[in-house]
Structures are given as C-alpha cells and as structure tokens.
C-alpha cells in the first residue's frame, strides 16, 4: 500500500500503464511481466502496491478508468440542461476517445472480458456504467423540466440507448482508425432528444 507521495505516484503510474496495456492487448494479453517491463518496477514492488496480484491491479484499473471516463465529460455531464451543453458533451467525448488516439473504450474493453472472468471487476464496471447512464438520464430530465423535451419520454431508456450506441460507434471506429463512425453515432444520439423536442413543440401548437 502506498503511504508516501512518491509511493502514491508510483502506484498510480502502474495503474495507468496497465490500463494502456489492457486497452491494447486485453486483460488476457496483459501480464505482471509486461507491466513490470513497461513501468520498470520489480516483482516485489508490484506486490507491495498490489498484494492481490493481477486481479487486484485489474480492479484498480477498472475503478480508475471509470473515474477518467466521467471526468472527461465534465462539466457538461452534470449539466446537460440545454442543447448547447449536450453539444459540448458530444465534442468532449470525441476529444476523449479520438484526440488522445484511444481507438477503444477502456470501460467497454474491460467489460467484455471481465464479465466472464471476474464478477467483482464486472461489478465495478457496472457501477461506472450506471453512474454514466444516471448522469445522462438526469440531463434528459432537465431538458424535460425546461420544456425542451417531451415529458413522456423515458429518460432512463434513452440514457441506456445512448451508452449502448456510443459503445457501438467506438467498435466501428476501431478497425477504420477513423472518428467518423463515433461522431456519427454521437450525432444520432442527440436525434431521439430532438425528436422528443419536436413532438413537444408540435403538441404545444396543436
């Protein structure tokens, strides 16, 4: 366990390097040996910071990636009360995934393998995904309260569809090494809200 600032920095460096390896090679392709080589740490150091070995390390990566994902959407993820905020949220996600050359979603990549391999890691990922969906649903509700979106729209269902569509867009962007699929999906994500907004406006005029 890290008790000094230097130790905390070293521990965090190991987590981040492991996250990059998992993103590139998956959990199965990431070993303590490859982590040691990437971080120039000894076996004793690794087990000092992560007594549970690879399993504990992967879980820490899952927590960190979840925090990074939500942080990348700040401050808009806690606003989303206007169309401008939704568009800025969209642009921020493009920058997060593509501006950093991340051709995969860290959380999505972890979820694919962890769901079958480690229920505890899967639970951590579910917590991150749920927090993400809840924040989006809250944004939809703000738009409903502002009269911008049909109040009968199911905010939770829309939020689930947004996250699912986003993950699909990232998968399509990976082999193409192009941001176009992701950007197209993000634009389409806003369409259901716009449809609800149009329906709301049409109802008001009737």
From TrEMBL:
Annotated Tetracyclin repressor-like C-terminal domain residues: 104-187
Keywords, alphabetical: Transcription, Transcription regulation
Keyword Transcription regulation annotated: yes
Keyword Transcription regulation: yes
Coiled coil (residue ranges): none
PANTHER family named in the record: HTH-TYPE TRANSCRIPTIONAL REGULATOR LMRA, TRANSCRIPTIONAL REGULATORY PROTEIN
Protein's UniProt name: TetR/AcrR family transcriptional regulator
Organism: Actinomycetospora straminea
């Amino acid at each position: 366990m890290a008790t000094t600032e230097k130790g905390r920095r070293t521990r965090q460096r190991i987590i981040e390097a492991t996250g990059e390896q998992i993103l590139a090679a998956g959990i199965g392709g990431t070993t303590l040996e490859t982590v040691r080589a990437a971080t120039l740490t000894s076996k004793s150091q690794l087990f000092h910071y992560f007594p549970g070995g690879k399993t504990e390390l992967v879980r820490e990566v899952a927590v960190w990636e979840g925090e990074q994902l939500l942080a990348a959407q700040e401050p808009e993820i806690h606003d989303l009360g206007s169309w401008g905020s939704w568009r800025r949220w969209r642009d921020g996600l493009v920058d997060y995934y593509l501006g950093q050359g991340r051709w995969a979603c860290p959380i999505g990549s972890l979820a694919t393998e962890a769901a079958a391999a480690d229920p505890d890691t899967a639970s951590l990922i579910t917590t991150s995904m749920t927090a993400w969906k809840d924040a989006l649903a809250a944004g939809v509700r703000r738009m409903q309260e502002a009269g911008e979106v049909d109040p009968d729209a199911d905010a939770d269902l829309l939020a689930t569809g947004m996250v699912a569509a986003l993950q699909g867009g990232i998968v399509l962007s990976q082999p193409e090494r192009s941001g176009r699929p992701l950007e197209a999906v993000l634009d389409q994500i806003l369409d259901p809200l716009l449809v609800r907004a149009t329906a709301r406006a049409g109802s008001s005029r009737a």
